[in-house]
Recover the amino acids of this structure.
């Protein structure tokens, strides 16, 4: 930068405004400043359209949700490959939106006539409370759905639907627990102290 002798003055050094003994000149803004300013404005316009107007950009929350779902899906695949449907495996499937969605569809088609579309119960018990006749642990629920309770009108679904469908519908039923839909059937069975309740 060219330095100037202390006493040398130019037209730019003319004081145009003074207050409290402080003089204000009208220097030209440095180029780096002007270009930084223009760049921030251009960035802001781009940012605005990318995220809020065109909706083409994925917001951080959406990106986070997608990553969580991807992770859950990968874990669900692992669980199925492993083949052992214990409590953790089933809880894992119940966190995978895809498995839950498939299970939900099946539930609407096959189970809702007796358990209601929202799981609140009818001919069959309410699946949205914390009371279970045959146990509220994930593996208990899986077992009940697989083997049924033929004497009471609940079919053994395992043979009819196949393992993967039972896994999905169990995952869905696990998401119903303790959601306590308003028009649900009164509780039946024992209070279950599953720690995994939401
Ligand atoms: C024809 C009616 C009917 C259909 C269809 C039906 N259920 Fe049931 N379900 C029952 C009855 C009745 C019981 C209660 C059995 C008892 O009293 O021991 C029951 C019990 C259950 C239980 C155990 C509840 C508890 O309190 O322990 C679960 C879980 C369950 N059903 C899930 C399902 C799923 C999932 C489906 C669909 C694949 C399904 N049910 C389809 C009638 C039905």
């Amino acid at each position: 930068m060219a330095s100037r002798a202390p006493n040398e003055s130019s037209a730019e050094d003319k004081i145009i405004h003074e207050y409290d003994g402080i003089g204000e000149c009208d220097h030209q803004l440095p180029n780096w400043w002007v270009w930084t300013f223009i760049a921030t404005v251009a960035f802001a316009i781009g940012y605005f359209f990318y995220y809020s107007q065109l909706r083409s950009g994925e917001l951080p929350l959406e990106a986070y949700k997608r990553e969580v779902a991807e992770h859950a899906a990968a874990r669900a695949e692992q669980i199925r490959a492993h083949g052992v449907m214990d409590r953790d495996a089933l809880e894992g499937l119940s966190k995978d939106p895809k498995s839950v969605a498939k299970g939900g569809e099946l539930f609407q088609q096959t189970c809702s006539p007796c358990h209601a579309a929202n799981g609140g119960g009818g001919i069959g018990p309410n699946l949205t409370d914390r009371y279970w006749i045959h146990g509220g642990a994930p593996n208990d629920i899986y077992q009940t759905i697989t083997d049924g309770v033929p004497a009471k009108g609940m079919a053994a679904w395992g043979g009819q639907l196949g393992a993967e469908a039972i896994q999905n519908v169990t995952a869905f039923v696990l998401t119903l627990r303790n959601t306590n839909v308003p028009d649900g059937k009164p509780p039946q069975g024992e209070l279950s102290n599953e720690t995994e309740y939401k």
